[in-house]
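Kindly inspect this one:
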Amino acid sequence: MKAVQFPAVGEVRMVELPDPTPGPGEVLVRVAAAGICHTDVHILHGNFPARYPVVPGHEFAGTVVAAGDGVDPSWVGRRVAVDPNVPCGTCPACKENRQNLCPNLEAYGVTLNGGFAELATVKLTNAYLIGDLPFKVAAMAEPLACVVHGLNLLRLEPASHALIFGAGPMGLLLMQALKHAGAARATLVDLHHRRLEIGLELGADATLVDADGLQELAPEHGRFDLVADATGVPAVVERLPRYVRDGGKILYFGVCPPDAEIRLKPYDVYRRDLQIIGSFSLRQTLAPALRLLASGAVRVEPLISHTFQLDEFEHWIQQVGKAETMKLQAVLE
């Protein structure tokens, strides 16, 4: 089969690999759509823990074409999306239902071969039925599942006013999910006008190209109930407390560099009764993400700016984060 491979840090190749065979409890998926995530960029450059060589791709969907021992053969022919996380199931984190914090966590596209290939083997427990959802939509279930996990941690208060820095794919998924969960208003800040236009089309109430003027858009108390970062830019993250109301919540959702540091006044957090929440990956949230997609509550088609063939991967991973790109997907059928 054809596959993209990261042989080592900083290397990308198109390779021919033997067709994988599903083991016990696994299914073989013919990949139909796979999205590039900024995490794939981090893995390529060695800024995210991975195991090389690896076939990247943790956002993918396709059709089951073979079943391993112990799997009902009726799964063959079913259309599925994949939860990439493979926790150990036995550690304290797993027993507390916090599988995303498993110290032995494996993941398709990170430590196990993933979706940027014609075929991929996955555990049956990681395959979720998608019904008649288009594959390109179903492949967005994984990033949306990360958003759902963040919302579960937030416990959003009704009629909250939310401020989101970053109107890339993750920021716009977060904005839509917040509105669906009951946020009264959502304001987006981003440097790129086109991204903000898409945000307005998807339900944002206000947009700004920088933080100037935020006081005018905030509720009467001058600050927001929730401020979230979806940029992963440390300088942006450092400024979040100035925009949140006393007693409000701050969500660290974007992925900052592992060695980044910011200045934070602990007295400010203490005196203002602030809640700072970190959200990593997904946690048993692919099924609710698929329900949001199926219901139309969250729209993802406007976020997919470019599709490409598998052998064009090396070009397109270099386009991640540019002003003219949003979600980039390989389409294999």
